[in-house]
Amino acid sequence: MASISILKGREKQIYQKGSQDFDMSCDKKSLAGSISQRACVFCGSRVVLYPIADALHLIHGPIGCASYTWDIRGSLSSGPQLHRMSFSTDLQERDIIFGGEKKLTNALDTLIDQYKPKAAFVYATCIVGLIGDDIDAICKKMSEEKGIPVLPVHSEGFKGTKKDGYKAACDAMANIVGTGSIKDISPLSINIMGEFNIAGEAWVIRDYYERMGLEVVSVFTGDGRVENIKRSHGAALNVVQCSGSMLHLAQHMQEKYGIPYIRVSYFGIEDMSKALYDVAEHFQDIDPEVLPRTQALVREEVKKIHPVLKQYKKKLHGKKAAIYVGGAFKAFSMIKALRTLGMDVVLAGSQTGTKEDYQVLKDMCDDGTVIVDDANPVELSKYSIEKKVSLFVGGVKERPMAFKLGIGFCDHNHERKLSLAGYSGMINFAREVYASVTSPVWQFAPQRNQ
Amino acid sequence: MKTQQKAEYKATSNACKHCSPLGASLVFRGIENTIPLLHGSQGCSTYIRRYLISHYNEPIDIASSNFSEETAVFGGGANLKLAVDNIIQQYHPAMIGVGTTCLSETIGDDVPMILRDYLKNNREENGTVIVPVSTPSYSGTHIDGFHAAVRATVDTVAQKQSSHAAGINFFPGMLSPADHRHFHEIFSDFGVAYNMLPDYSQTLDGPMWTEYHKIPEGGTPVKRIVAMGDAVASIELGRILAETKSAGQLLADKFEIPNHRIGLPIGIKETDVLFDRISEISGKPIPEKYVQERARLIDAYADGHKYVFEARAVVYGEEDLVIGMASFLSEIGIVPALCASGGKSGHLEAKLRQVIDDFDAKQIQVKEGIDFVEIGEIAKKVNPDFLIGNSKGYKIARSMKKPLIRIGFPIHDRMGGARIVHVGYRGAQQLFDTITNTIIANRQDSSPVGYFYM
Ligand code: SF4
Ligand code: SF4
């Protein structure tokens, strides 16, 4: 592996626990020419808003951004399917020269009349930021004309990172929050935030909370409906999942409506249970029965899956895994979940972790574990081979790399069609890991035969 | 007259096309030891990688010069140079293909000049060839980007070195890796020297590795592209390809190499054209193997003709692929009732007329610049027996309860998109069997009797 060198300017984004002082550099722009696995601001906004199923999502710009994001995600809707359409103003040369405002107005006009959405999101992509179309004014005018919220999403790709896209999405949603009636909402009520209903995960989570006796006012944004978002400020608590994609909105709702929030994760038994207990604790003063109900729920669910997990654990014990995901919070949960399966995590990283995230990661990891920020395929494969991993947990872009090297792979991103959240999700995860690691096909991989 | 204006304007709803840098990246992935670099924001190259990966299931490294807000305002020169530096340091490539994005085009970065400047100041790095290509997506689709990259590469690299003309230049266009592999086989069987550009038969459909290969093996060697200036002739696939965008035409203008532009060799008629051309140019007879393949194919046509006769198909995808497929369907008796593409060269109908006999009698609908919502609307009226095109038509097929036969790009809901052979007698044989069997299966499944002997 001598041929692999780490780029100058990236050395401080790679850390091996135990070997040097911890001084991780992160939270910066990807290096030009490094093949970053990161996306752009638009990507962040699109991820967050995508599952709002009764809204129109119009991408203002040349065709690429819309074409590449047409219904690639696994977010399910129990009703309308409008979110799965891909609308674009498909800017052409003359629009670039003369501006795309007229085209945008016309597009909104026709599409809103045709599809009758409950709201419309207009995503500004790179070019739009550059040619300076006044999308705010157009949205405002359209809102008045059509009587629905038409919201600009400032997601010009070059104006930051995916995280800035989360913020832009939250800003857009903040305009709808607080516009609906909050009559009849129970004092034992929550919003589920940062849950995108991949393969129906939000339904699983929602069911848990309801069994605890809580009212779920809105799920941001899984199986999303504009109506629910409008009245979400009536909830007593915001429960924010992982990546921080919704943190900004939770903070906004705390300031404006006084709704407290807590952060949780739904992956793995440990974090799932902790999430439910944390929420139960919050409501203890209003209803002391919530906690015992939660205990019963957790006991029942764990009892169901425990014997099955034990079987998998026997098969997976001592195998090594690598994790490279978007948000660092997910990496924490993954490490715990893999440990539940008896596996050791030897490489962990994220595209967007903060200094504090990496500190937590470092504290969690065993000695020798490599921690990476904003890595590229060259680095990821180098350490995967050196550390002899038999499982890689990541997103689509890492998958072919793993398979090429004869390494099992588990998809853990928004494109998957398998529910991994909650207790039932843990079983799915275990089965998937088991299938990935122990499949007989790897006997033919050249690396294993060396 | 507000309503009238409304009727005129339509947003693109579910596009039947992608953006130009995708096509360019694909070409660069088909050149030996080459890295594609997109000059613009990070998102474009990441999305394109992701998209290509879901079809090819191969690692696809595409670098980005990674614009920030300041770059967008003050220009991308420094970022581009840094990106080239970093790529050379980490990948040691023979070539870097630099495609522009909408963003760098719009701010007006003079990429060729920035690169010249870079090369001037970095003499010691000069082993690396750098090919700039302009690929703004607002003036074309992925297929335009593809052809532009082939042309730019030839323009930068090809040279006339010898007074002896030898070999054939072959530009296969955006087909599958398996198609590219089949072309290799055909040329080798003919025993003629050739330079094929691009060639991702290995780079996008290769074996497993023991360590990460920063750039996968295979692809057209740069020295074969240099040699293109010395060829006896060029053969270029694609009837649509406009003269100005054609690499073959460029070589004709620059080095007086005769250019043969022919259709994609899909089906017997169009494949015959290719074999005849290679034979004419090289003076060698068509190898016996292909004479036999062709004969067996005709025999199969006879065996299956009743099942397919006057079946109706909806065909969509890149314009040239649509033309090739429509030609093939027509020669076996299927009516390509709707021929649709997101591209808009303005030539689709005229070229279809060239390959389809009794075009008018068949009442074929031709649609350029179309999206999938419109394809769906027309398809319902056309009432086809099946649809043929990439995975993106699945929603329409599902809503109509009609089979979709997957060809072209992208195929992300089935295995093996990279291994489909569309071209040659062999490709026609596979397509014929697939289509006929799809129709038979449909009949079988919908029959109240449940025949198992059809
Ligand atoms: S900006 Fe242009 S190049 Fe980038 S993804 Fe959009 S259409 Fe493609
Ligand atoms: S970087 Fe800009 S143009 Fe490229 S995908 Fe993101 S928003 Fe679209």
From TrEMBL, chain A:
Family: Belongs to the NifD/NifK/NifE/NifN family.
Alphabetical list of Pfam families matching this protein: Oxidored_nitro (PF00148)
Pathway this chain belongs to: Cofactor biosynthesis; Fe-Mo cofactor biosynthesis
Function description: This protein may play a role in the biosynthesis of the prosthetic group of nitrogenase (FeMo cofactor).
Entries under SUPFAM superfamilies matching the protein: Helical backbone' metal receptor
Limits of the Nitrogenase/oxidoreductase component domain: 40-437
GO BP term (any one): protein-containing complex assembly
NCBIfam families: nifE (TIGR01283)
Gene Ontology molecular function terms on file: nitrogenase activity
Key words, A-Z: Nitrogen fixation
Protein name: Nitrogenase iron-molybdenum cofactor biosynthesis protein NifE
From TrEMBL, chain B:
Every Nitrogenase/oxidoreductase component domain range: 19-439
Keyword terms of this UniProt record: Nitrogen fixation
Key word Hydrolase present: no
InterPro entries, alphabetized: ChlB/BchB/BchZ, Nase/OxRdtase_comp1, Nase_comp1_CS
Pfam families hit by this protein: Oxidored_nitro (PF00148)
GO MF annotation: an example: nitrogenase activity
Top-rank taxon, per record: Bacteria
Claim: Transferase is one of the keywords in the record: no
Family: Belongs to the NifD/NifK/NifE/NifN family.
Protein known as: Nitrogenase
Taxonomic placement: Bacteria, Pseudomonadati, Thermodesulfobacteriota, Desulfobacteria, Desulfobacterales
